[in-house]
Specification:
The chain is mostly beta strands. The chain contains 4 helices and 12 strands.
C-alpha cells in the first residue's frame, strides 16, 4: 500500500526486454536507504518487487500483465520516474490509499496554467469514467491528486507548485502516456452497487427499491 506522495525522482539506468516482460534497473537514493530483497517500491505508481540492489540503484522484474497494463513497457535509459516506498504502520496517510495496481494508461491531452497551478487534462478509457468524481482522488503516475473536473473520456487535475516541482509530471508533454489508478474504495463500491451474487450477476443492488426499503425514500 502507498499514499501517492512521491519520495524522490529516480532514473532508468538500464532496460532488459523480453517479448512481454522487462527487467528495469533504476537509480535511487532515498527509497533504498533501508531496502531489502522482496520489498515493494512504486515506480510511476506501479508496485514492483525489488530483486536486486546496490548502494545507488535497485532492480525489478516486470511480468506480462504489468507490461501490458502500464507505461513501464515504454521506458528507456535516462527516463525519470516517480518513486515511493510502501506505507509503514503508524505513518501519516498524507495522500490517499494507493494500491500500486494500475487500471489503465491515459494520455496527456493538455497542460495549462492558472495562477500558481498547473492543470493537466488526461484522456482515459470511458469504462473508467464511473469511478471518477469531482473532488475525488486519483493517482497519476503514482501521484495522489484531486479531480477538479471529469467528463466521459477525460479528467482534470490541478497541481500546486510543490507537486509540479518534485514529480515526473512536470516532465510530461502533450501526447505522453501516464499510469492511472482510480480510487480503490470507489472501485469496490461501484462493483457492489452493480452486482450481487445472491440475486444474480449484474443485478442492481442499490436502486429505488433498495432505498425505499431502507427508509431513504418516502
Amino acid at each position: 500500500m502507498f499514499t501517492g506522495l512521491v519520495e524522490e525522482l529516480g532514473k532508468v539506468r538500464s532496460v532488459s526486454k523480453g517479448v512481454h516482460s522487462i527487467r528495469l534497473t533504476l537509480t535511487a537514493t532515498k527509497v533504498i536507504e533501508d531496502v531489502k530483497i522482496g520489498d515493494s517500491i512504486a515506480v510511476d505508481g506501479t508496485c514492483l518487487t525489488v530483486v536486486d540492489f546496490s548502494p545507488n540503484s535497485f532492480t525489478a522484474d516486470i511480468m506480462p500483465e504489468t507490461f501490458d497494463r502500464t507505461t513501464l513497457s515504454l521506458k528507456k535509459p535516462g527516463d525519470a520516474v516517480n518513486l515511493e516506498r510502501t506505507l509503514r504502520l503508524g505513518d501519516r496517510l498524507g495522500g490517499h490509499i494507493v494500491s500500486g495496481h494500475i487500471d489503465a494508461v491515459g494520455e496527456l491531452i493538455s497542460v495549462r496554467t492558472r495562477d500558481n497551478a498547473n492543470i493537466l487534462r488526461i484522456r482515459l478509457p470511458e469504462y473508467l469514467t464511473p469511478l471518477l468524481i469531482q473532488q475525488g482522488s486519483v493517482a497519476v503516475d503514482g501521484v495522489s491528486l484531486t479531480i477538479v473536473d471529469c467528463q466521459e473520456n477525460w479528467f482534470e487535475v490541478s497541481l500546486i507548485p510543490h507537486t509540479w516541482g518534485v514529480t515526473v509530471l512536470s516532465h510530461k508533454q502533450v501526447g505522453d502516456k501516464v499510469n492511472i489508478e482510480t480510487d480503490v474504495l470507489g472501485k469496490y463500491i461501484h462493483r457492489l452497487a452493480k452486482s450481487d451474487p445472491r440475486i444474480g450477476k449484474n443485478k442492481t443492488v442499490i436502486g429505488e427499491e433498495f432505498l425505499a426499503k431502507h427508509g431513504f425514500l418516502d
